[in-house]
Amino acid sequence: MKKILKLAVLATAFGGLNMANAIDGTHEHKGHQMQAEEVMVHAKVNNVNIAERTINVSHGPIKKLHWPAMTMDMKVADDVDIASLDSGQEVMMALARGDDGIFRITKLMLH
After folding, report:
1. Is the pTM of this model over 0.70?
2. pLDDT over 90 for what percent of the chain?
């Protein structure tokens, strides 16, 4: 009985560590941080800064990331074409955390 109780306590402790990493959107594997999956988000384009490779967007709450609705500047991955975007356009965008911990737009589709 004591062995079962000890195993339950250990499982709970390690499970808690995994949950903390899941909330952060990352997990570790053999000491290396892995990139979180992409999250699809509907947004409105407010401004495009081609020189800085950022887009100012307004989006609703993103439950998977625990983000409220907000307006923010988002960095854009180098392989995403932003030259034809205009203010006021609605888009579906994929967000993913880079190796530096910053979320970037990794895909864009006009909505």
Report:
1. no
2. 66
